[in-house]
Structure formats: structure tokens, C-alpha cells
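Allow me, if you will, to draw on your knowledge of protein folds for a short while. I have a record of one protein: its chain in single-letter code and its fold written as C-alpha cells. I should value your view on which stretches of the chain appear to form regular backbone elements. Thank you for your consideration; the sequence and its C-alpha cells are set out here:
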Amino acid sequence: MNVSIIGAGLAGCEAAWQLALRGNAVTLYEMRGVKNTPAHITNNFAELVCSNSFRSDDPETAVGLLHEEMRRCNSLILQTADETRVPAGSALAVDRVLFSDSITKKIKSHPLITIRNEEVREIPLTEKVIIASGPLTSDLLTAELAKLTQQKYLFFFDAIAPIVYKDSIDFNKVWFQSRYDKGDGFDYINCPMEKDEYNEFIDALLGGEKTESKEWEKNTPYFNGCLPIEVMASRGRETLRFGPMKPVGLTDPKTDKRPYAVVQLRQDNKIGTLYNIVGFQTKLKYAEQVKIFQKIPGLENAEFARLGGLHRNTFINSPHLLDTSLSLKNHPNVKVAGQITGVEGYLESAAIGLLAGIFTAHEIKNAEIITPPVETALGALLRHITGSANIATFQPMNINYGLFDSIENLPKNANKKQIYSNISLEKISCWLEKIIK
């Protein structure tokens, strides 16, 4: 049986890979190359738009735990991320060009995966389908999904951070250091600010000219995990000093003191020529971005490989529409995967693609679908979008320990995160043994 997958982003590629690993033929549809999106630059698969970071790789964090679980599930995304990683302290960051190139080559060279570059406008309901069209789903497919689910769609804004050429940075004013010296200890470029420089910068952000929202976007909320820098600044003058510009864990070697505020840049490609400004998603107009970001010490003459931007994301009300196998309740042949399900983040999107691929493979064999235990990151994330989230207030969510059940009767000084991690990895190993049989 052939499975159709709509969308060759992180979730679609992961779903295709999991199906092909289990001997199933896949037709993977991707409209880019025929029709572009407002945010993508290339026609490659699994292009990373907002950032090159998959966040913390520490298995005692919720997202780091998700990394490790997916590695154990033979995840294409994690395997390729590990192969193309760049220095980023305790985070897993990649050379985004090498990452996307590698994913594209692996998918295109697999004998069981057929690629079709076209825009899907109708969803075939009589065959197995996985919709992984992502947050930038085309208007025509969005309208088709609206009819299929008999639901209105929800939207939120997602913003893109700018990228700077390393050789345009003034290294007389900046230094390499990871916060608390994690990772290699010097994975980030740090641009220090004194109090007056910080306040001048905040004033510039607040006064900078922003792009206007289109009429159909004006009631679209922001996702709190990816707020534009100027929106954060508008919530209080000190907000950025307790967010992306927090100076804790850093010491300026020129003064041997902690700065008042710090702007961090993270390596964006393998050869280290590009750095993105961490947490600086923005809807400032391009000319304003250059003028304002060049106020940052060390970036006075910065040249930008890419400036920030803003695009609208699309997601469905998954707790209302999906069953625990990620199938639409009213159309069981159709599964939905990735960010369109209301998970937020690269890894979370790929994780749902991974589960959709595994579940579909089991259905084809008429085998029982065994969902991952709720004590695991995969299981907790799946449970959230297919039942535990509040249908009336459902919004995009990253993986976090708040999605896990509380551990009762812990000793007073117990390392709770380590206990979560140990339990989860033991449970995921048992689950894998069951689904392999």
C-alpha cells in the first residue's frame, strides 16, 4: 500500500522515513519549486526557517529528553542534526544549509520514496494520507482542510531572527563565552551593553517602524515562545534583561564584570561564517533593523546575510479533531502531523511526524497501535494534542515537564529532572521493544 504525505518539512520527511524504514512505499508531495511560501528561501526539504537551533541537548531537560527518545527511534531528523551540528553550548544547533541538503539527498535517494513537486488541493480520503503541510499551508489546502474538519482555523504569528556575517563583527568589543561556560564554554559571541546603551537600544526598538499586518492578520495572536523583540520590549523596560539579553552566567573579560545586558550570537553554519542574533525575532522594517541592530556594541558595521521577518502560522484544534493515532476522528484514513497539529518547535514537529509514520505503518500491517507511554516526552506531547489540552483555549505548545504527570512522594532533595529522564528512557526502550515485535 502506498502512503501519500503532503509536505516535505521536518514532520513530512520524518514520517516518510519511518514508513520507508518499515518497507512501505511513500509518495511525498512538496509544493515549493512550483509555489513558494512567504518564509522559505530554498526548495530543499526540511528547511529551517526561524533558527538553526533544536534547543537544549541535555537529557535532563524536556526537549533534550525528546532528542534522546527520537535518537532511539532512528529519527532521520536527529541523525542528520547530529551529523551537521555546530558549536552551541549545551544546545543542539546545526549548519542549516548542510542539514537541509542532507535531508533532501537522503529522502530523494530512498528507493521507496517518490517525490512529486506539486500543490495538493484535494485530500484523497480513500487512501492512507498524512497531512504535514506545516504552518505555511497554502490557502487552497487550508480551505480544503476547513471543509474536511468542519472547523475554523486558528492562526498565530511566528517571527524570524536576523543573521550576521561573522567577519563584519568588531571582535575588539565582543567575546566568546557560553552562559555558565556550558558546552565548550565559548560557543556564543557576546555583545555587552552598559545601562545607558541598553536604555537607548530599548528606546530605538520601541520607536522603530514596524511592518503593518494585513487586514486578515490583525486579530492573529503571537506565540509567547517566539515573540518579536520589540513586542517583548513593549511589555516592560527590563523584560529583555530577563529574557534573551540576560547577562547572568557571563563575564566580560575586558572588565572582569557581568555586563548590564548582553546580546548573544550563535553560530549558524558549519564553517562559522554566519551567526544569528539569539532571540531577536522581529517585525521591524528592514531599514530599521539595520539602523537599530547596528547600535549593539560590536555590530556597528554588521552586515546581514538575512534580516528578520514575520509570517503567519496555521494549526488545527487537535484535541477536538484527532484521535490518539493522530487520525482525524471523522476521516480515519487521514492523519495530521507536525506543527499544524499545534505543537511548537522543530523537534516537536518532527516528533509528531515520527509517530504518524510509525502508527501508519502499523495500520498497514493491521497491527495494534501502541502509543508511547505518557511518562515519555513523545507520549506526553501526543497526549497533550490528542486529549489533555483544553479544546476551548488550545494554543501551540513546546515540550515541557508540565505536560508530564507529577511524580509523587519524591525525597525532599531529589533531582526531579533526572528522575523524569530515567523513567522516560526506560519506558521508551520498553515501548520500542513492543512495536518492533
